[in-house]
Design a protein that fits this description.
Radius of gyration of chain A: 27 Å
CATH topology of one domain in chain A: Aldehyde Oxidoreductase, domain 3
Helix content of chain A: 25-40%
Mean pLDDT of chain B: 97
CATH superfamily of one domain in chain A: Aldehyde oxidase/xanthine dehydrogenase, a/b hammerhead
Shape of chain B: globular
Oligomer: heterodimer
CATH class of the largest domain in chain B: Alpha Beta
Strand content of chain B: 25-35%
Largest interface: A-B, 29 and 29 residues
Low-confidence stretches of chain A: 769-791
Strand order of the largest sheet of chain A: 3-5-1-12-9-10-11
Distance between the termini of chain B: 53 Å
Number of strands of chain A: 27
Number of helices of chain B: 11
Helix content of chain B: 25-40%
CATH architecture of one domain in chain A: Alpha-Beta Complex
Low-confidence stretches of chain B: none
Number of strands of chain B: 14
Largest sheet of chain A: 7 strands, mixed
Largest sheet of chain B: 5 strands, antiparallel
Mean pLDDT of chain A: 95
Chain lengths: 791, 291
């Protein structure tokens, strides 16, 4: 048997890396089809109202153009999500700015600019709601004019897409326990925390090319869309509804994708349906690619949120109970908000033991473009609130943030808030010890307290402890029923067939590593097919940190099955060399023609989940982490800069150390942007700073050295013990950074993004113009509301 | 690209004289374009008003940087990369080397020119505050000849300058007279690179003992145009940096600067923040003089 050096745990070159580096990789805007036309979208200029009149100017020869409106849709005018409230094209009512109303196609891209300018739309404007609070007020006041989403049709309530109530046990017992906990508590600490919208800012904007094929009668027979996306089968299902076609007549192909971060999870269903409609009506292939300004203004962003915590704590720092309420702003249509809210709800208790806990959560409707998937998917929002609040509790009762967490961490054998037993090893104590040591936390706490007395630059350190569930929530993976194929190419090399997509994170590479390890073959011999739904099975969407663990495990199982087949039917010897494998494979193919191994998801252990009670095994596995941020706050410019970052995580077996480190560094950078730089400026629901000059993403000059550390505890759920990693690094940076800022300045900030202007206003409202590390009275909450403290 | 490029006309006259003749024949018809780092952005987003462009980027006679009678003379076509690479600038005019280094991105610096930065006349432009404190003069050229102005008098209002429609910037001339001056510059942008200033302050000062003998201050984003902060300069000239009077000097400087600051609220920052930070930067400079 040859020595294998590129399996799981090694860092082989990315499968598509050479083509990307050489500029040979072809993204959607590099591709062209014969007789292809270009598409453009006519969008609403108001936030809410009714279309009164569409006027097409005389200066344009409209016979040259294809114009698609909602009336042209052969099937349902809807974008398939969990509810069908989201129209593919607005036909009468407008619910957010930049909502698509008409689609145009023309052979010349330039001609589309002239046409867009020649269309004027008159509206009857209705009042809009733009924040969670405005949406709530409309419901509370029963203000029919501001009920912007009538839930009755969708098994929901006015202005509210979804609610959850999650208890740490049987509901009535927990309520009784909470009453007792708050009566007996030495301290009751309350806080409110909020987070803003965030743009994914993938390098490549959303784009697709669509074709439509007709039968001899001229009826639409099938459609095909290729483009930049995460989830080809999501788009298949969207096309089925819009065109009223069966699944096999809706073909979707993912081409090289320049970043996604969740921003190409649900949105391709919109742009893909649009391009296909234009292809249908124009009789030409149609390319629809957004420019940056359109992509930023019209596509999904991270949900803004508000988390309120009311916690009962003992004098010694034991958490006795918590009432947490989480609200997210879903935008104008339901889209993925219920699932984002679910993850926010389940992550709200963090990695702590709460004897009694109630989480109530809701997703509210507003007249902004629908918010959608973005790395972390609700968890960064509720974990920001929790990890800021833990520091507040520590300060209030007078113990260190470290001690408070140590007294309440979950450990192996404990039950999570949903009642899930932590069967696999969990050691948050060890993670915390190591993370603080790597960051020289204690030494810095002491040193900065001294230095800050005289320096105009106030330095501080802070941390956050958290976890991220990998894979779909609860029974999600069972429902997905993901399938993976492994085939033999004619030359005997194995090829993986999955709908899991590569968009920069390393899917191609790690799945080939998983197969290489299981097949005992060199990594270079394993290939992976382009995700084309006419060829690859549905292995589920490429989301939820599920690909490495869930799909990786399926690839591993398919590989083991293939070895078994080849040894049974083609005399593959034990401890084979790659030459022996290829020979056996060719022998098998000569005799049987083809070999396709097919496996479906089966949970490695029993997974129990109750969707009604929101109890049970919330996720197959969790990644655990402690992140430490070091900051400098300049009292002359009121700007906070992260000067060092230490990210320690336990993600099971690390499949590809170089890619894994890259994932963590990228997530931390995105988290720093989320905390300190990236602010969506909304003007009546429209993003006013939809350009990279004014939407401030940090550059390399703004980022600190990021030190990435791993603990490896193999999990039964993933290939060779791997767990998910993709979203985790988005959860920790923001609370760690704001905790560090409080350590540096003595001022507690509870809203992100936290810009220099915000720090300036707070410093001045506190009446000490130079900031300083003066301790505030810990019993007074200057951000939110005054809490009760029972002595 | 949100513009139809077929609606635009771009030509490159063979000689500078030819270009000046074209500008003189129909003043206002043409917009000169050098590196294009401003105009091409406007074109991309569909907001470039002028349909006729004349390129001057190829005129090497406008791209020079030389020492002349105790001055540095910088041609309008000099790029920011040229400025960053010049030993002369690094030695004598360090603030200009610094402001050039944070003008846009590296790619912008390779194409963008000092002349372009001046005539674009953004109140947030990175280099004008430095030219102001260094006491630059500016030479303009047209078919009817050259004229030289004190750069202090060049900016008239928001994006308004002394430049006539038939003129181009020829060069900027800066005296090499700042040996022994303490020099300061700080830009507070939306981030540390690729950023537009929220506020920036440049300053040079000469001290005699513990007194400020001479001080010059220039600011970006403090008013509707790049300015010399004359009120603050006046308040500080002759002021004491001695330990017992430093606080009073700082207060006098801050108060005078506050009087002449007329910043705005915009998508990048607030007027309150800009005023306060400008004063803080001035204080930082003054404290460094006292050290």
């Amino acid at each position: 048997m040859e020595e294998l050096i590129d399996g799981i745990g090694a860092s082989p070159l990315r499968k598509e890396g050479r083509a990307k580096v050489l500029g040979a990789a072809r993204y959607i805007d590099d591709l062209s089809l014969p007789d292809m036309w270009h598409g453009a979208t006519v969008r609403s200029t108001i936030a809410r109202g009714r279309i009164r009149n569409l006027h097409f100017g005389n200066e344009i020869d409209w016979s040259e153009y294809t114009v698609v409106s909602a009336r042209d849709i052969p099937g349902l005018n809807t974008v398939a999500h969990l509810t069908n409230d989201h129209p593919c094209l607005a036909s009468e009512y407008i619910n957010h700015p930049d909502e698509p109303i008409l689609l145009l196609a023309h052979p010349s891209k330039t001609a589309l600019h002239h046409a867009l300018k020649a269309i004027t739309i008159e509206y009857d404007e209705y009042p809009g709601v733009f924040t969670i609070e405005e949406s709530e007020q409309a419901v509370a006041a029963q203000d029919a004019e501001r009920i912007i989403w009538d839930g009755s049709q969708w098994n929901a309530t006015a202005n509210c897409f979804k609610t959850y109530t999650m208890y740490s046990g049987e509901g009535e017992e927990v309520e009784a326990g909470l009453s007792r906990a708050f009566e007996e508590a030495d301290y009751i600490v309350e806080g409110e925390y909020s987070t803003g919208a965030q743009e994914q800012l993938y390098i490549e904007n959303n784009g697709v090319i669509a074709e439509c094929f007709r039968d001899e009668n001229g009826d639409v027979e099938s459609v095909c869309v290729q483009g930049s996306m995460q989830c080809p089968y999501y788009l298949v299902h969207a096309l089925e509804l819009v065109f009223n076609l069966p699944e096999e007549k809706c073909r979707v192909i993912q081409v090289e994708t320049g970043g996604a971060f969740g921003g190409k999870e649900d949105f391709p269903s919109v742009i893909g349906s649009h391009a296909a409609l234009l292809a249908m009506k124009s009789g030409h292939p149609v390319k629809l690619v957004y420019d940056r300004a359109e992509d930023m203004a019209a596509t999904t962003k991270r949900h803004p949120s508000r988390t309120r915590l009311r916690t009962a704590v003992s004098r010694e720092g034991k958490l006795l109970g918590a009432e947490i309420s989480v609200a997210i702003d879903g935008g104008a249509y339901s889209t993925l908000s219920p699932v984002v809210l679910s993850r926010a709800t389940i992550h709200a208790p963090g990695p702590y033991h709460w004897p009694f806990l109630r989480v109530k959560s809701k997703a509210m409707a507003t007249n902004v473009p629908p918010h959608g998937a973005f790395r972390g998917f609700g968890a960064p929002q509720s974990l920001f609130g929790l990890e800021r609040h833990m520091d507040k509790i520590a300060k209030t009762i007078g113990i260190s943030p470290e001690e408070l967490r140590r007294k309440n961490f979950l450990a192996t054998g404990d039950y999570t808030a949903t009642g899930q037993p932590l069967v696999e090893e969990v050691d948050m104590q060890k993670l915390l010890t190591r993370a603080l040591r790597e960051a020289s936390y204690h030494e810095k706490i002491a040193r900065y307290a001294e230095e800050n007395k005289t320096s105009p630059i106030k330095r501080g350190v802070g941390f956050a402890a958290f976890m991220h569930g990998t894979g779909f929530t609860g029974s999600g993976e069972r429902r997905l029923n993901s399938q993976v194929h492994l085939e033999l190419l004619p030359d005997g090399r194995p090829q993986i067939l999955v709908s899991s997509t590569e968009f920069g994170q390393g899917t191609n590479t790690i799945l080939c590593q998983a197969a290489a390890s299981a097949l005992h073959l060199p990594y270079d011999l394993v290939t992976i097919a382009q995700p084309d739904t006419s060829r690859v099975p549905n292995s589920g969407p490429t989301v939820a940190s599920r690909t490495a663990m869930i799909v990786g495990k399926l690839v591993q199982r398919a590989s083991e099955q293939m070895l078994h087949t080849l040894s049974s039917f083609a005399a593959l010897p034990e401890n084979h060399t790659s030459q022996q494998f290829l020979e056996a494979a060719r022998r098998y193919l000569a005799e049987h023609g083809t070999l396709r191994e097919s496996v479906r998801y089966e949970p490695p252990t029993k997974i129990y989940w109750d969707d009604e009670l929101y109890r049970g095994d919330a996720y197959p596995g969790y990644a655990w982490a402690v992140y430490v941020a070091e900051v400098a706050v300049d009292t002359r410019t009121y700007s906070a800069t992260v000067t060092r970052f230490d990210a320690l995580q336990e993600v099971g077996r690390v499949m590809h150390p170089v890619l894994a480190k890259g994932q963590i560094e990228g997530g931390v950078a995105q988290g720093i942007g989320y905390a300190l730089y990236e602010k969506c400026v909304w003007k009546n629901g429209h993003m006013a700073n939809n350009q990279m000059t004014n939407y401030i993403m940090p550059t390399s000059a703004d980022l600190p050295p990021i030190h990435v550390h791993f603990e490896e505890v193999p999990s039964i759920h993933g290939p060779n013990g791997a767990k998910g990693i993709g979203e985790l690094p988005m959860d920790g940076p923001a609370p760690a950074i704001l905790n560090a800022i409080e350590n540096a300045t003595g001022i507690s900030f509870n809203a992100i993004p936290l810009l220099p202007e915000d720090i300036f206003e707070r410093v001045h409202s506190l009446g000490h113009p130079h900031g300083g590390s003066r301790e505030l009275d810990p019993n007074t909450d200057r951000d939110t509301r005054v809490e009760e403290t029972i002595a | 690209m949100r513009s139809d490029v077929t609606e635009y006309e771009l030509s490159a006259p063979a000689t500078l004289q030819e270009m000046l003749s074209l500008l003189a024949a129909e003043p206002g018809k043409y917009t000169p374009i050098a590196g294009g780092t401003e105009l091409m952005v406007a074109l991309g987003v569909g907001r470039l008003q002028s349909r006729s462009l004349l390129s001057l980027q190829h005129f090497q006679e406008l791209r020079f940087l030389r020492e002349e009678d105790g001055h540095v003379v910088i041609g309008a076509n000099t790029t920011f990369t040229d400025l960053r690479r010049s030993a002369l600038i690094a030695e004598h005019l360090p603030l200009l080397a610094q402001s050039a280094s944070w003008t846009g991105a590296i790619a912008n610096q390779n194409r963008g020119t000092l002349g372009g930065n001046i005539v674009n006349a953004s109140p947030a432009a990175d280099n004008p505050p430095v030219l102001l404190v260094y006491g630059a003069s500016i030479t303009l050229i047209s078919a009817s000849g050259m004229r030289t102005l004190d750069y202090n008098d060049f900016h008239l209002g928001y994006k308004k300058t002394q430049l006539r429609a038939d003129e181009l910037v020829h060069s900027v001339r800066i005296p090499l007279a700042y040996q022994g001056y303490r020099q300061y510059i700080r830009k507070v942008g939306t981030r540390n690179a690729l950023a537009i200033s929220k506020i920036a302050l440049a300053g040079i000062a000469r001290t005699e003992g513990t007194r400020i003998a001479e001080i010059r201050l220039g600011a970006a984003s403090l008013t509707d145009r790049p300015i010399r902060c004359l009120a603050a300069e006046k308040a500080l000239t002759g002021a004491s940096l001695a330990a017992d009077s430093l606080e009073a000097t700082l207060q006098a400087g801050r108060a005078a600067l506050a009087m002449e600051a007329k910043p705005i609220d915009d998508i990048r920052s607030t007027a309150r923040y800009r005023s306060a930070v400008a004063e803080n930067l001035l204080e930082e400079f003054l404290r460094s003089l006292a050290e």
